[in-house]
Design a protein that fits this description.
The chain is built from 14 helices and six strands. With 378 residues, the chain is of the alpha+beta class. It has a domain at 49-172. The strands form two sheets. A four-stranded antiparallel β-sheet has the order 4-3-5-6. Strands 1-2 form a two-stranded antiparallel ribbon. A hairpin with a 2-residue loop joins strand 5 and strand 6 (232-237). Helix 4 (49-74) runs antiparallel to helix 8, helix 4 (49-74) packs parallel to helix 12 and helix 7 (135-143) crosses helix 8 (148-172). The longest helix has 26 residues, at 49-74.
Amino acid sequence: MTPGEEARVVRASEAGRAAAAAAKRGATSFTSRVKYSSHDDLEATRPQPSLEAARHRAVAALASKFEAAAGHVLGGRWWSHYESWLFSRRAAGATAAAKAGKGKRLSGAGAFVDAPAAAAPDPVVPDPTLARTDPELMRKLVAAGLSDFEARGVCMDIGRAAAKAAAQAQHEGGGGGGGAAGNNKHVKLTRFEIGGKGGADYSGSADERGEGAGGRAAAGGASKAQLTCGKVKLEINATHLEKLRALHRRYADTAGGGGGGGGKHRDGDTARMFKDSVFCLLARYSALQGAHYKAGAMQAALPPQCFDALRAEFDVCLELCASPFNCHFRRYCSAFLDTDAAFGSLGDCFQFHPVEGSFEGKTLHAKYSTTKPLTLKP
């Protein structure tokens, strides 16, 4: 993708419009294209690890309650039903909020654009008022042998657990408004060999020089990295970490606004920003799929050969349904602009309105799509 082509797709995207609005207001934000001039402003606008850790803990606690309430009825693959229930209730919450007029527009991830922060549904924790009533879960419970009365009782138990999860996320995340920078916990990044013992903290100068897990593990075999914030520990393969590092180095200073860096930060800030950004990314997507180690099977990706053929035959240069973890091209649309923009995401594919070009997209399951089908006009 040439710089001119990249600028055009950015202008047609959610990230580009957010950057233009921020520039028009004269504000410095995570989507602004101006250089950051205030360290405090920078902290206030970035996703906060403390809030994402709180959401992750809340969804993990909700998973345990779901297993206790319905696992014995749904069987050994209860986590798959839990993941389906999560997506269903998030979609229901987004639809209900839209009908109530609390937001201007729904995003493909079930969140709102240009909506007040207090009005937008939480991106991962389901609305407690809607968690008690899921027709599909009721159908599954009755099919598994429960009576209607018993099935409603199970759904009520899960609804109460969802209310506790929402309260937990709000309390631990500093009120649910993004978290205060001063109260945010530090993220620790360590590397360990698969099958090895212990881990080494490499979050200091080696990180700043760009020596990541991938480079250090080259001679010793496969390795992984662990990012820790408070009690939440998340792992990532070294190769994926280095991919994220390269994307972050290119796009973090503009956070999807179309540039290739250029912001000025202290060296220590750069390393810390990378750790915070990766942790927020891991926590958000892990919580999205249920914060359970067996969850996350509801996705599919094309092999690199298919992308190469699409590029060669149709000049495809952008994915409409991707994430920072599995994107093939540098630019792509994904579920969350706030956590993904620092890694090159252009935001919601349902808000991507190009006038020309070829783009790769996957069929979205109607059950989890909360907006109208994606249409690109010629």
